[in-house]
# Entry
Amino acid sequence: MLPVLVVHGGAGFIPKERVQMSCAGVQAAVRGGYSKLQGQGSAMDAVVEAVTLLENDHHYNAGLGSVLNAKGEVEMDAIVMDGRYLASGAVSAVRKVANPIQLARLVMDKTSHLCLTGEGASQFARSMGVPEVPEESLITEYARMRWKKNLAADANPVECQMGKMGTVGAVAVDAEGNIACATSTGGLLNKMEGRVGDTACIGCGGYADNRVGAVSSTGEGEAIMKVTLARLILFHMEQGCSAEAAADEALAYMKDRVGGLGGVLVVDHQGEWSVRFSSLQMAWAAAQQQTLHYGLNTGEHFTQNIDDPY
# Structure
């Protein structure tokens, strides 16, 4: 069953004209990350590679293509977690960095802290030799259009959020049985400056523990934080639930208790995995035993040989 990698491109509603590229992007990311696992790379190497590829794809709300805050600026959050030692690194409200997920890994590997935010994260990035990129290079015309549309006096905030391509993430178990997760986002469309959502918060946007499994979350950030969604799912797994049952129970609780919708990737320590979401859609892909799995709508699960062309 090992190794295995599962990737998502965010929970929510995907406009029809962006569906094809959303599905293609997660498949490309899972192929890229899985190649790391096939080359004896670690679970952490695989999830960071997969999320980096998604950050570089302008169809997602992470890295290039991130949504804009109320001032029309990009502020990004990201987290990684290594299930071997419960080591984790995160950045929040970070600017002018092309790949926040790689900076989050540096926080984990090079500091004794779990999260750096804002200007402190930027200073750390510079000290690590991470290139600073112009903010304009991260802003797409699509993101700017939606920002302007949401500023209008008659804007419907619910409708504006619906076109949002969400948070991206990945979970993996490598050939050694080590587990990791990674999650990255541009956050909430037209959010207040300085707003930090679930992604950078350990136990919310992601969690990994070799003794149980790993989760990467996406959806309504404030709701995910209120129920600590990622850790809640692993708690249910510790009580004997399967990955799928644990995800369903936690998502149902979040919807019932705080009215929140979202989606999750879950994998257990044996490589059993599940993709579950309460939102309308979630683009996802997985790679295991040379098979590519993928889907978008509830109940969809397509497969093909991972070496077959797109």
User: Anything to note?
Assistant: The chain has a mean pLDDT of 94. The two ends are 24 Å apart (CA to CA). The first strand starts at residue 4 and ends at 12. The chain is about 35% helix and 25% strand.
